[in-house]
Amino acid sequence: MAKINPGEFMRQVQSEGRKIYWPSRQETVTTAIFVGIMTVLLATFFLGIDALFGWVVSSLLSLL
Questions:
Q1: Which DSSP string do the residues of the chain spell out, in sequence order?
Q2: Number of structural domains found in the chain
């Protein structure tokens, strides 16, 4: 691997830094709200699944 001098390295870093896309405030807020809603929905779903499996296991154990 070829060595690059520090000046060339900094130019490459700046060049790559200009390619970064920063989302707008509106995009960030919209994404954060979507993530929050999906988190609540998935937590509710897994709570229901856990309760159902708990009920099934306790019902099977009560038969013993």
A1: -----HHHHHHHHHHHHTTPPPPPHHHHHHHHHHHHHHHHHHHHHHHHHHHHHHHHHHHHHHT-
A2: 1
The verdict on residue 55 lying in a domain is: yes
pLDDT tens digit string along 2-58? 787 889 999 999 999 999 999 999 999 999 999 999 999 999 999 999 999 999 999
The per-residue pLDDT for 2 is 72
Residue 56 in any domain: the answer is yes
* Cβ proximity of 35 and 27 under 8 Å: no
